[in-house]
Amino acid sequence: MKIDPRSHVPIYLQIADGIREAVAAGIYSPGESLPSLRVLALDVQVNPNTVQRAYDELARDGLIYSRRGKGLFVAEQGKANALERARKTVRRLFDQGVQAGHSAGMDANDIRAVFQASMSAKEKQ
Amino acid sequence: MKIDPRSHVPIYLQIADGIREAVAAGIYSPGESLPSLRVLALDVQVNPNTVQRAYDELARDGLIYSRRGKGLFVAEQGKANALERARKTVRRLFDQGVQAGHSAGMDANDIRAVFQASMSAKEKQ
Amino acid sequence: MKIDPRSHVPIYLQIADGIREAVAAGIYSPGESLPSLRVLALDVQVNPNTVQRAYDELARDGLIYSRRGKGLFVAEQGKANALERARKTVRRLFDQGVQAGHSAGMDANDIRAVFQASMSAKEKQ
Amino acid sequence: MKIDPRSHVPIYLQIADGIREAVAAGIYSPGESLPSLRVLALDVQVNPNTVQRAYDELARDGLIYSRRGKGLFVAEQGKANALERARKTVRRLFDQGVQAGHSAGMDANDIRAVFQASMSAKEKQ
DNA sequence: GTGGTCTAGACCACA
DNA sequence: GTGGTCTAGACCACG
Predict the structure, then answer these.
(1) Residue D117: its chain C contacts at CB < 8 A?
(2) Architecture of domain A1-125
(3) Angstrom distance (rounded) from CA D66 to CA D27
């Protein structure tokens, strides 16, 4: 997982989003255990409190749950849940972009062109 | 201009973005004067200092300039500047959306479908 | 005289400085009359109050004096006065530049090089 | 850092310039943390908001960056950035001085003499 | 009237 | 503890 400590997006959210995406993409499956607080904290080089906050966020969403003394696990509905949420995130970002372009006087074709450029850039990666 | 005081986006940025879009869309033209600090503050129901910070942001970007005792004016290159910036904002949002979808395991068609939905929703407004 | 309404330097100071330099350079001589408020205001396209403030500034410095009903005149010591002041202004600007360069870790040769560049640029005009 | 509250240069700019020079001179190095808002505010005897505005200025220039909850840090390109900017500041001041002298009828030798005096005065400090 | 700076003090998010 | 935002209200410079 890539963490950018200079980003204005809080680190705990970057971590939570990274895990959400990993679950949605099937990298972690329902029932499977997640990296422990300390392991993940070492991995991404942040304070364990920060990782804790990320896991709290995910638990509140019902994406993961903890079993005392056993660790953290992906919930049964975790993957569907994460996918649904990812789709909403994408939709929200697109809505914002479309709205911003529209407000600035761009027409539908202008906006579509920008989207195509964005898709092409991604495919070339 | 619509301001959402509960948004996580700072009010001063919401105001700055609103003006930027207005300039990009030609609502305010180069050389024209903008609403005074106090007038806009009353209009959007915030403290004049907050409006000033928004105008400050725009002045630093070269979108507007101030003449003490006279008021605030749209810079000559203001419209081009704002359009350019709006385009970049749209592109950044789309890039983020595409990236988020991709990370969550959505394929290009999934992502395109979400974009289409977003465009359709906008057109229906 | 060139006035830049977008400059952060107040217009009345730009006008006062312009006249000071003109007197120092001998464009206006002691005993000679200066353009009237209204004429100068029309010339540089500003409010007569602003020109008045510039003339006030100059009168306080003893560079010019007014004769009621007759107009404004350059004082006897005006040219020497203005030259002395110009020299001080130049010295102050150079002192600031030298100080700024020094504080930023530039050595004497670095600073001299910048000065030479500045002189060369002026000569080429 | 020396702050002159009676100067016409706003306090926040005096602070920003002081930090810029310190970075250019290598007193603070890339990656290193800067004094916290509150500490610096106590140090220079001004309101923390004023210090924040200074840091804001520097962050917008890319000289420093902030990490909420952690502190303020010198950017990787901070030193080069600051040096470049310092050079421009020196050049601007010299240009202004040369221009002022020229407008007042001083010739190149007069102007050079003032510069030499300025350099000598600095060396004697 | 205009914009610009500064203070005091509040509250929030983050680590 | 850190930085970030906002308000209220003061005072100044300018035109």
Answers:
(1) 91
(2) Orthogonal Bundle (1.10)
(3) 18
Output the DSSP codes for C36-62. Answer: PHHHHHHHHTS-HHHHHHHHHHHHHTT
Residues 6+ apart with CB under 8 A from C85: C20, C24, C61
CA of C15 to C1' of E2 (A): 21
Q: Residues by CB within 7 A of strand E: list them.
A: A 10-13, 46-47, 49-50, 53; B 34, 36-39, 49, 52, 55-56, 59, 66-72; D 5, 10-13, 46-47, 49-50, 53, 67-70
Nearest nucleotide relative to B14: CA against C1': F5
Question: CATH fold of D11-78, please?
Answer: Arc Repressor Mutant, subunit A (1.10.10)
Taking the CA of residue A121 as centre, how many other CA atoms within 13 Å lie in the half-sphere pointing to its CB?
A: 14
User: 98-117 in C: which are within 8 Å (CB) of D?
Assistant: 98-106, 108, 111-112, 114-115, 117
- pLDDT above 90 for C31: no
pTM score, whole prediction: 0.92
Query: pLDDT tier at A31 (50, 70, 90 boundaries)?
Result: confident
The listed CATH number (2.40.128.280, 2.60.40.790, 1.10.10.10, 3.40.50.300) that belongs to domain C11-79 = 1.10.10.10
At C109, the amino acid letter reads: N
Does the CB of D1 have a partner CB in chain C at under 8 Å? no
Please indicate whether, in this complex, the C-beta atoms of C93 and D93 are within 8 angstroms of each other.
Answer: yes
List chain B residues with CB under 8 Å of C10. 68
The rounded radius of gyration (Å) of the Cα atoms in chain A is 17
Chain A residues with CB inside 8 Å of B15's CB? none
CB contact under 8 A, D97 and C102: no
The contacts of residue A8 (CB under 8 Å, 6+ apart) are: none
| Cβ atoms of residues A119 and B98 within 8 Å | yes
pLDDT at residue number A44: 93
Average pLDDT, consecutive stretches of 10 residues, N- to C-terminus, chain B (125 residues): 93 97 94 95 97 97 94 96 95 96 94 97 90
A26 close to D (CB below 8 A): no
What is the rounded CA–CA span in Å between residue A115 and residue A97?
9
Contact A6 D67 (CB under 8 A): yes
The answer to whether A76 touches A30, Cβ cutoff 8 Å, is: yes
Instruction: Work out the end-to-end distance of chain B between its first and last CA atoms, rounded to an integer number of angstroms.
Output: 18
CA neighbours closer than 13 Å in the CB half-sphere of residue C21: 20
| d(C-alpha C125, C-alpha C79), whole Å | 26
Give span(s): CATH 1.10.10.10, chain C: 11-79
Core vs surface per residue D65-89: b (16+ CB within 10 A) or e? bbeeeeebbbbeebbebbbebbbeb
